[in-house]
Amino acid sequence: MSHRLIPANDNALPLHVIESSDLTHWLGTQPDDIANWVRTNGFKGNLGEALMVPSTGGKPLMALAGYGSAQARARGRFALAAAAGKLPEGCYRVASGLPEAARSHETLGWLLAGYRFDRYRDGKARDRQLVVPEGVDKTEIETIAAGEALTRDLINTPAADMGPDQLEQAARDLAEQHGAQIEVITGDDLLEQNFPMIHAVGRAAAAAPRLIDMEWGDTGPHLTLVGKGVCFDTGGLNIKPGNSMALMKKDMGGAATVLGLAQMIMTLGLKLRLRVLIPAVENSISGNAMRPGDILTSRKGLTVEINNTDAEGRLVLADALALAAEDAPDLLVSMATLTGAARVAVGPDLAPFFTDDDGAALALAAGAGRVADPIWRMPFHAPYEADIEPDIADLDNAPGGGFAGAITAALFLRRFAGEGRYVHWDIYGWQPKAAPGRPKGGVGQGARALLDALPALLKL
Questions:
Q1: Active-site entry in 203, 300, 314, 448
Q2: Active site includes 119?
Q3: Taking every annotated instance into account, which residue ranges of this chain make up the domain Cytosol aminopeptidase (predicted)?
């Protein structure tokens, strides 16, 4: 499918979106030959069903997409996309049946369903174009789809082709496209400029660690996005087992998500000042790798005992968050594929977030509902603060016990985020099996909800 909507087209095939409970009524409005064709082919209007209806001459006359029931739609997202993937290549226009309140997110689902990661193989995907439905903001929907495609491409690319060097280049390309300023601190310069934990995590890899710093816009409220850019995570000296390492190309999913969101913000021209910080590293193994038991001194001056080198994401984020907090942004957001505990808590489909700001949480929840980007608020539970305080340093990067791992990681990060409004996301960044609008592979989470909530969060 195309990532673009097309204007009104007389050659576009009418597409009727039909709820299962409305099928009998709809058939009653059609000529007998059409009604008989639909019944003969067993079309019931169930979610994900699709049917082409021919004219008496055998050419396509219309297409039908099953919209199921409200109960069936509540169990998933992007119901129209479930049927769209079964339609033949062609150009379609929604002729009836799609509720006005659902048009925007169903149109987005159609575009997202067209995503294909084809960098490493040939083959032309079938192109199913959609005429922009009435009432849908074409620019906004296309912009969101393009930002999501960028996120997916970055996550899906293997670490051999998406290491710290290539992630930096992706950020530079984005900055050039939108006239943003970008600076990158690399290698031992991280030590000289006081980013010791970013350096410690990435120094064992062949590609030097770095901090990517992009800024755009000169008026309006100040938004800073911090994305975890661990381009591959072996676990360091606490090496992961092979099955846990298989998906670690996605450990830069936070960086990919904030870059996709930044592209959306800049393309839409939102009236704000945007800063994007990405600590880009590979957590690797060599003679100079950080060790369990080491104590690092962070940019903020807090000391951190390393009890597990596989809890590295919070270390690189901590230095970046400390830098971000020095500017006192109006809203500071971190996004990271941070803990397995978050996946155990809410599974792969929900994006958990942490904030102390009830108003921000309500705005994000409302945005998530509008754009079909499910999220769930988790607590900064203060009684667990003691769990991240070891005996010989200020903080512990991997407290023992096995409980509340997502919360203790979030509490660790909060120590570096300053006193302003802060939202931390512990995302998965991966679609484990194909679903409507979400092919298997890398996926953005939380970005659409945050984009939709920005006017409320920043009074834009």
A1: 314
A2: no
A3: 308-315
